[in-house]
Amino acid sequence: MKFTGNQRKLYLLALALLVVAIALACTWTIWQRPSDETTTPAITPTPEATAMPVEPTLQPSASPEASASPEATSVTETAGTMDTIVYYQDNYGYLVPVMCKVPAEEGIAKATLSLMVQSAQNDMQAARLGLRTVLPENVSIDLDITGGLARIDLGKEVLSLADAAAESNMVTAVVQTLTEFPTVEKVEFLIDGQKRETLTHGTSVSGQFSRIDINPELAESTISLSDAEPVTLYFPGDSGSVLVPVTRMVYSEPDIHTAVLELAKGPNAASPLEDVLPAGCGLIGVTVEDGVAKLNFTKEFIQLAQNSDGGRLALKALVMTCTQFDGIEKVEIYVDGEAYDPGENTLSVPTYANVADEIVSQSIQTQSELIFNFE
């Protein structure tokens, strides 16, 4: 290819500029690279010891076994954050406790309640879990904890809740959240600095409130509450990502045999909660030996693996329902009397029924498997 005089000059000029640019880039890279003597090693935070969520001092627990119970109210301080229990609601009004992270600082109880207030950030976090916040937007929260009594003063925004159901859920969620802390036994409400008998739609906020059984229901409509006993069951929620604890009132002894039998019956007929066991699956029996609960199901149980998450959430519901009882440390599954292995870690005892980070991570994994059709 031949060049004219002007073309030759432009070509040489462009070539020269390219060489200068490369030289400058190399010089910049060398100049920016720190020498071995000035390199600062990365600092890896070391997890602190498990601590109980004490308000306001947050003193570490003396024993690492303090959080061994699946539903223990424990706080783990790691790299500037702490785990605490937040109460959300699902789309049908069930209250759902979730272990979430908050900054490691004094005032942990108020910080926990702040996560339950409607806001862009809090609502996004709740939506990632398939849940909703329970306190109205812009509500102020003042909290004082003395002698086992938590006095909470909520702003006037709580008087504008949509209905009695929203009011009741808010009151119950606040009481349940605060009584997760061992320093709180009772909760007393003020509204905009004043004592009130009721909220706008008639929900009582007078007197002192204690912790109650969560999401109560009757096993049969004919049961008398005075003759019934509570047993806690765990069912997958409608979002398919969280476990919803339900307190079912039963005539039978509230032990592991009754709990598994009631779990096998499924949620209330009018409930949007999901069944734990596949359609047609029956419970053959429950035995307990040396802290191991052995659950024997009919052959339909193996259909659990066809769930979108491989049955992980349903298996977790089984484990949570069983290990709430003292002395039950492990769960084994049998199908028609033969040992059945549902997969690695699917029967391990969870730290807590719902852990925010684990839910989000599992949801991403499940969606990825569905998209790419992983086995």
TrEMBL record:
GerMN domain location: 109-200, 256-344
Protein's UniProt keywords contain Zinc: no
UniProt superkingdom: Bacteria
Coiled-coil ranges per UniProt: none
Extent of the signal sequence: 1-25
UniProt region (Disordered), positions on chain: 36-75
InterPro entries recorded: GerMN
Any Pfam family hit: Germane
Keyword terms, alphabetized: Signal
Bias type Low complexity, positions: 37-51, 60-75
Name of the protein: GerMN domain-containing protein
